Amino acid sequence: MLIARRGLLGGAAMAASLPVVRARGQTPGIKIGVLGDQSGMYRDLSGPVAIAAVKLAVADSKAAGRDIPVEIVSGDHQNKPDVAAALARQWIQRDGVDMITDTPNSAVALAVAAVCKELDKAFVNSPAATADLTGSQCEPTTVHWTMDTWMLAHSTGGAMVKAGGDSWFFITADYAFGHALERDTSNFVKQAGGKVLGNVDAPTGSSDFSSYLIQAQASGAKVIGLANAGSDTVNCIKQAGEFGITAKGVKLAGLLVFISDVHALGLQTAQGIVVSNTFYWDRDDRTRAFSKRLQPMIGDVRAGMGQAGCYAGTFHYLKAVAAMGVADAKRSGAATVARMKSIPTEDDCFGAGSIRADGRCLHPVYLYEVKAPGESKYAWDYYKLLATTPAAEGFRPLDAGGCPFVKS
To answer: Stretch 161-165: mean pLDDT, rounded?
Structure first.
C-alpha cells in the first residue's frame, strides 16, 4: 500500500491525504482523520492496518448505498499528547477534518477528546483503553469502541481470581492507561476477596523488565498483572519466560493483549495466556468475511480488535452522516455523535450493538485462551473460546462511570 506523506508540525508528525471519493460539482464531503501510531510501540495494533480498515469502512459504506464523498488523512501522534492535540487542532481548523479515529495511547486519546469537544467535531476512539473516556472525562463528541480498562479488568481479572489467582502484583505502564487498568483490576481483585501485594510503574517503551519481574516474583503473588500494552507486554512475557517465572507456578495476566502481540511472541511462548478480546478475525463467518475483504490491503497479517474498531466506528459514523445529511454532520460533531447513539450498530466485526448515552459502544466480550502450537491448524489460528459476556454485562454500568453530562 502506497501512502503519500507531507510534513506537519515542523516534521514532528506526518500526515497523508488519501482521496477515497472525489465528486465533481457537489458540496464538500466528509473528511476523516486517522490519528495513529505509525512508528512506535503501538504500530502493530494501529498503524497502516488501521488506515486500511478505515478505507474499507468507506468502501463498504458506499457499497451499502451511502454515496458520501469521503477523504481520509492520516497522521502519527508519536505517543505524545501535545503532538496529537496540535495535529488534531490543525486538521480541524485548517484542513476541515470532521471526525478523528484510532488514537492508541490513553493520554493521547484524552487530549484529542478535549480538542474535539472544544471544536465540536466527532471523535471515535478505538484502541485507547482508559474507561475515563466514558467516565470522569467523557464528552458529548466522543464515542468509545472496542474495549476499556473496566471491561478488561472485569473479564480477564475476574476470570483469574475465580481460577484461584487471589494475590496480585502489577507491572504498570506509567501513564493514564496503565494506571487506569491497574486501578480497575485492583478493584475487582479486592471485591472478590483477593489481595494486591504491590506494584511497580515502568516507563513505556522499556526493553528491560528484569528488575520489575524480580520485584513481582519476590512479592510472592500468585498473579503478575501486566497493566501495559504493545511491545511492553510482549517484552514482559518473553522475559518472564526466560527467567522461568511461569515455570514456578506464577501466572501472568496480560490484561490487554492484541493478536499482534501473540503473533510476535509465538505460540510456544504465548500458549495458555488468557486474554479478553471483543474481535477475533476467525470468530465466525462475518469476521472471516471482513478479514478476507481487508487482506489485499494489508498483506499477511490480521487485524486486531483496535483496528476492527476503527472500521466499525467509521462505518457507523457514515451511517449517521447519511441519516442526517452531510451539511448537518459537518456543522456539529456533538449532533452527529447524538445521531450515532440513536441508531443501533451493526457490522461484520462486532455484530449487533448500541452506543450508550456516555458514548460507550456495547458489544459482547470474549474470553480466549491462546492455543498451544499443536492445536493451531493454520496461519493466525491462535485462540480458543472460553466464555462470552453479553454486551449488557461486559462494560461498566452507566450509573457507575461518573460521566458529567449523563443524568442517572
So the answer is: 91
Cβ(106)–Cβ(371) under 8 Å?
A: no
Contact yes or no for 134/360 (Cβ under 8 A)? yes
The type of residue at 314 is: T
Sheet with 351-355, side-by-side order of all strands: 345-347, 351-355, 361-362
Mean pLDDT throughout 374-381? Answer: 98
Strand pairing class (30-36; 167-173): unpaired
Tell me the pLDDT band of 408, cut-offs 50, 70 and 90: low
Q: What is the pLDDT of residue 246?
A: 81
Assess whether pLDDT exceeds 90 at residue 233: yes
DSSP line for 209-220: -HHHHHHHHHTT
In the chain, the domains with their CATH numbers are 6-147+283-363 (3.40.50.2300), 150-279+364-393 (3.40.50.2300)
The DSSP result for 311-359, as a single string, is HHHHHHHHHHHHHH-HHHHHH-HHHHHHHHHHS-EEETTTEEEEE-TTS
Q: For 55-74, how does the pLDDT look when each residue is reduced to its tens digit (9 = 90+)? A: 999 999 999 999 999 999 99
Q: What is the DSSP letter of 277?
A: E
DSSP 372: P
Rounded to the nearest integer, the mean pLDDT of the chain is: 92
Q: How far apart are CA 232 and CA 238, in angstroms?
A: 10
Q: How far is CA 21 from the centre of its chain?
A: 27
